[in-house]
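step: validate -> pass
step: tokenize input -> pass
step: predict -> running
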Amino acid sequence: MEFRTQTDRLRLRNALWQQLRTAGPGPDFERTLARLADLTGWDRARILAGLGLPTGGADER
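step: predict -> pass
step: emit ->
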């Protein structure tokens, strides 16, 4: 992913976190999680922990 500025990257990162906080389980959640993982370099378990979710998956919400 290419960004014009660091601000653009941070805005996207924050938007992805917000989408994950409001998304229910399903393909959209998984796609957003994958995009955030790609952007941050964090693994799935770390992102789920950041959301306060069990590392087993979004369906455990």
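step: describe -> DSSP finds three helices and no strands in the chain.
step: cleanup -> pass
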